[in-house]
Specification:
This protein is 60% helix and 16% strand. 20% of the residues are buried.
């Protein structure tokens, strides 16, 4: 069984438990926070993956960090994962839970990469276009990449629409060279 399958199963179990206990939104907020900490703190990530730090010590450290910050069910679940010697997949479990939560609540992540920050009218236009084929909540994730020269790239799951000047110039160059 691959790590991602294991992480997915843990995430699904936590989702089912949080639905059963009617606190799915709070648990989602906890998992968003945990995923963020795992992504931004190299020390925290090293702690989770360290074979030198024992299970009991990891649980003590995690309890010290999270006891007053997250729901009891989230903390108990994190402790369970650590007790099962799976602390190294905790970031994947947290991200997997957030993905399952978004799917369950019909929330779509839309990443927009542009050459400069988008104004609110452009954002609204992009969201309106996407809403014509998607019924749900759209979370717009913005990124600025000056190498695009102008225009933007929209990514939704595994689909991409590239309306950037850089890609148009590259396409024109290919046409002229051939």
């Amino acid at each position: 069984m691959s790590v991602t399958k294991v992480a997915h199963r843990y995430a699904q179990a936590l989702l089912d438990l949080s639905v059963e206990q009617n606190n799915i939104d709070k648990v989602n907020a906890d998992m968003v926070e945990l995923a963020s900490i795992c992504k931004t703190s190299k020390d925290f990530d090293n702690l989770l993956k360290s074979p030198i730090v024992g299970t009991a010590k990891k649980i003590d450290i995690l309890n010290t960090i999270f006891t007053t910050k997250i729901e009891k069910v989230s903390l108990d679940f994190i402790n369970l994962i650590v007790k099962n010697s799976r602390a190294d997949i905790l970031p994947e479990v947290a991200k997997g839970f957030v993905d399952l939560y978004k799917k369950k609540n019909n929330i779509l992540d839309v990443k927009v990469i542009s050459a400069s920050p988008l104004d609110s009218k452009t954002k609204e236009t992009i969201i309106a276009k996407i809403k014509t084929s998607f019924n749900g909540t759209i979370e717009l994730i913005e990124e600025v990449d000056a190498t695009l020269l102008g225009g933007f790239i929209v990514r939704i799951d595994d689909q991409q629409v590239d309306a950037s000047i850089a890609s148009q110039l590259a396409s024109l160059k290919n046409i002229l060279l051939n």
